Amino acid sequence: MLNDIEFVNLFSAELGEDYRKAKSYVKDVPTQALLHVRSFSHKLTSLLAEPKKVRFDSPNLYDRIEQLNQRRLIDVKTTRALHKLRADGNRGAHPEKYHLTPEQLQQLSERSIKQLLSLVESLFVTVTKQEKPEYYFEDFDSLAGRDLCYRAVMERDPESQYLVGMSLKTRALMQREQEHALQDSRDEAVEERSTASLKQASYWFSQAADKDLNALYEHGVSLIHGYSGETDVVAGELAIAKAADAGIANAMALLGYFYLVGSKQFSVDSSLAQKYLSEAAKLEQSEAMANLGVLYYQQEDLERAYKYIHRAAQAGFPHAQYHLALMLARGEGCQQDAIKSAHWMAEAAELGQVDAMLSCAQTMLHDDGAIGQDLSQAETYLREVIKYGHSVPAMIELSIALADGILGRIDVVSAAALLKMARERANPTELEVILPLWESLALQVDTVLEMTTSPQERASLNKAAELLSESPVSE
Question: How far apart are the first and last CA of the chain?
Fold first, then answer.
């Protein structure tokens, strides 16, 4: 009986190679696995277009999927499956921006492989015109990771060194985000494991930089951010520029950003920003699309700004989805459309964009028809925004909701703790909002203390009163 890799090879030898690579990286380099999933999805659209000789209007994967759907070459189920794989591949490119833990990233890559396999199974007869054979799924293993390490260390293979570096960097950046989030919620110091991993990543990028252009780009990023413990911004920016001139998409996107906002080595230059961002956008680099939209927005060319921000949003970039929602709400460069605006705001929130999560939570909480509804999603969003964005408005919103019972329960201790946290981070304008809320909550606590006889309730109220005993305005 065939195994799953042999089964996909029977479907398409070219796609079978992408599938094999994607599966081999799941355990040790899940970001690479997800990038191969995206590559598989892109090539699959070409395979599905061949019978009708369809020529795609755009290299953008979202557009290709939609074109196949509009020509009725794929059904709704296949369309949704391809869009899901496209989104998962995008999340694999920058998992730290989606607030994923290393465990969640690996689970995502395992799930994507199985979804990809299920898609091949559903398309097998249509594409090959053959009867679908039986096959079995071989479990994921770590052989690829061990082989990578061997080739990186013993054979000094540049691509392997780059991939080992990427594995270490990805894990370190996700660890660092979790460390920062935990540190804000604890008084004692959180053990920091990310620094050592970044130093190791920096080493491998530097080893491969002379022979691997992707490693050269990552080496430049490492120098700028001081992964090794020391920064060299000028050398880092020059390394990125060299990789950009060699056609590396991420490097062109970052160099374009340098020209857009200015950096230590590169002065603001709109024409060069447009050049590099456009080249990266042609390669479907989502941040480049978004920043190209920003460039056109700054130049008040709103129609072109909308075009590129919309493309970046379709590519799954959450910051672009949030800004697209704002443009649709205002009718900037497009027809004003509140329904589409709400859709893209929800998409961005689901992918963890903090401004979008706050906006969606506020919409849910302030909806007149929300009374009696389950507002747990609003609470989840607010807690995520507080955890990752340290947002004072989110702390205030959640404090009010808990104090007033909007979430289906009253929790004055948590409400007081959130107000205290907000006060410590607030700017003068935010402090003006906090002051009356602080006084109102303190009065609410004192009033209930005078009335209640429940020992448990009194203990909670006394804790809240203690948190609110300090003056809300710093001396």
Answer: 77
β-bridge pairing 135-136 and 2-3: parallel
56: left (phi over 0), alpha (psi -120 to 50) or beta: beta
- The secondary structure of residue 347, as a DSSP letter, is H
What's the sign of the alpha-carbon dihedral 140, 162, 94, 276?
A: negative
Whole-number Å distance between alpha carbons of 277 and 254 = 8
DSSP at 57:
S
Show Cβ contacts of residue 179 under 8 Å, excluding neighbours closer than 6 positions.
190, 191, 192, 193, 194
Query: What's the rounded Cα separation, in Å, for the pair 337 and 329?
Result: 6
Task: Report the chain's C-alpha Rg in angstroms.
Answer: 26
Helix (H, G, I), strand (E, B) or coil at 75: coil
Task: Sort 72 into a burial class: Cβ within 10 Å, 0-12 / 13-18 / 19+.
Answer: exposed
Q: Residue 97: is its pLDDT beyond 80?
A: no
pLDDT digits (tens, 9 = 90+) for 36-68: 998 999 999 999 999 989 999 887 888 899 999
pLDDT at 475 over 80: no
Q: Is 428 exposed, middle or buried (0-12, 13-18, 19+ CB in 10 A)?
A: exposed
pLDDT for the residue numbered 474: 54
The Cα 366–Cα 380 span in angstroms is: 16
pTM of the entire structure? Answer: 0.84
Look at the chain and count its residues. Answer: 475
Q: Looking at the predicted structure, is the pLDDT value of residue 350 above 80?
A: yes
Task: State the Cα–Cα distance between residues 10 and 5, nearest whole angstrom.
Answer: 9
Distance CA 397, CA 394 (A): 5
For residue 429, count CB atoms less than 10 angstroms from its CB and return exposed for 0-12, middle for 13-18, buried for 19 or more.
exposed
